[in-house]
Amino acid sequence: MKPLIKLVSHAVPLVRENIDTDAIIPSREMRSVSKSGLAEGLFAGWRYLEQDTRIPNPEFELNQKQYSSAKFLISGNNFGCGSSREHAVWALVEYGFRAVIAPSFAPIFRANCIQNGIAPVVLNQETIDELAIQAKAGKDFLLDMRSMRLSVDEQEYEFSLECSAQTMLLEALDLIELTRKNMPEIEAFRREHRRNRPWLYL
Question: What EC number(s) are associated with this protein in UniProt (predicted)?
Answer without folding.
Answer: 4.2.1.33
